[in-house]
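>> Question from a student workshop board

For tomorrow's exercise we were told to take the sequence and the ligand below, predict the bound structure, and bring the output to class. My setup keeps failing. Could a helper post the expected result so I can at least see what it should look like? The ligand is S-adenosylmethionine.
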Amino acid sequence: MKKYEHLEEMYESGSVPWDETDPPPEVIDLAAKLPAGRALDLGCGYGRACIYLARLGWQVDGVDFVTQAIDGAKLRADQAGVSERINFHQSPVTQLNFLNKPYDFALDVGCAHGLIKYEFKAYHQELLRLLKPGAVFLLFAHLNKETEGKNWINENDLLLIFSQGFHLEKVEYGQTQVKDQDPWRSAWFWFRKDL
Ligand SMILES: C[S@@+](CC[C@H](N)C(=O)[O-])C[C@H]1O[C@@H](n2cnc3c(N)ncnc32)[C@H](O)[C@@H]1O
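>> Workshop helper replied:
Here is what the output should look like for this input. Compare the format with yours to find the bug.
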């Protein structure tokens, strides 16, 4: 099954493991350290990070290509009373020409690891265009196992592509387990756009 149809089916069936009220602690910690500005959430899902940031005074753009995700995110932002601070866009994260720079912060919790290499390069070019010099890009991604094919992100490819225009300030490796599935290697990356 293709990636889009698989994700759409997850939303339609209500099987959405990332459907939590709050974003992950790494997002919450970073948001507490940054002054509010313009933020971009790539693969925003139901918008939990967008809503969290909007409550802190950020102006946020959330992008996701699944209709159900965007519809749900709009509804939740309305219910949270922050819809005037968030614009949700239904689009692939590789084609963001409807967005204008500059953003102070971008985040991606679990979206880019599904992109194939040429899509990932387009995604990187969009971040390069949209982020302010000095802005943080926070990425959570599943990583390929050394022994595995190309299911998720190849860390060497990621670091090579983001060596153009960004520097890596910090990385934290971990494991992610979703329900009864086998655990995946994963990592949080804190990139900063070059000045
Ligand atoms: C693991 S979910 C996480 C959602 C959200 N970031 C969160 O933490 O709640 C990844 C999201 O990325 C979206 N996504 C995956 N590939 C995408 C693409 N190429 N363009 C836009 N959205 C995409 C999916 O529809 C899904 O909602």
